[in-house]
């Protein structure tokens, strides 16, 4: 059974509205320009926008018809366990290795599990962790483990 695009788009609009409403009710933090309400409202706005686009059918005509694919091997469904394995890896390795190295391994493994080629997975694993570190450590002031490789900032 397939769900109509209007129904799934409407569900996203409702979820986005609830996220934005819930975020707007969070109290402001004194002395900070960006409070805890910013992220839920940003995510809610994005969900609302995506839901409207899905409900209106924007981009549906750009989809090429899929050709039948070869059957997957028996272990193909085990890819669903990759996020749990990566979370467990982060819990065990982030303190000794540090955020940058652990995040690089996680991004690399996740990219390969999702079907990326090495030519994309390696640069992604090199570029994404420093950007995530910059966002969390500098902008959001979340303490991250340094481990073996301290960030240059």
Automatic annotation (TrEMBL):
Coiled coil: none annotated. Residues 7-145 form the DUF1468 domain. Keywords: Membrane, Transmembrane, Transmembrane helix. The keyword Membrane applies. The keyword Transmembrane helix applies. The chain crosses the membrane at residues 38-62, 74-93, 99-128. This is Tripartite tricarboxylate transporter TctB family protein. Pfam families: TctB. It comes from Siccirubricoccus deserti.
């Amino acid at each position: 059974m397939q769900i109509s695009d209007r129904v799934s788009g409407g569900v996203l609009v409702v979820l986005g509205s609830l996220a934005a409403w819930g975020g707007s009710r969070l109290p402001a933090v004194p002395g900070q320009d960006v409070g805890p309400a910013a992220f839920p409202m940003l995510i809610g706005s994005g969900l609302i926008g995506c839901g409207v686009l899905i409900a209106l059918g924007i981009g549906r005509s750009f989809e090429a018809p899929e050709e039948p694919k070869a059957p997957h091997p028996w272990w193909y469904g085990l890819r669903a366990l990759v996020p749990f394995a990566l979370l467990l890896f982060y819990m065990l390795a982030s303190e000794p290795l540090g955020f940058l190295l652990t995040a690089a391994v996680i991004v690399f493994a996740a990219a390969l599990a999702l079907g990326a080629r090495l030519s994309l997975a390696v640069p992604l694993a090199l570029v994404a962790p420093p950007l995530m570190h910059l966002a969390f450590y500098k902008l959001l002031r979340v303490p991250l483990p340094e481990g073996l490789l301290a960030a240059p900032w």
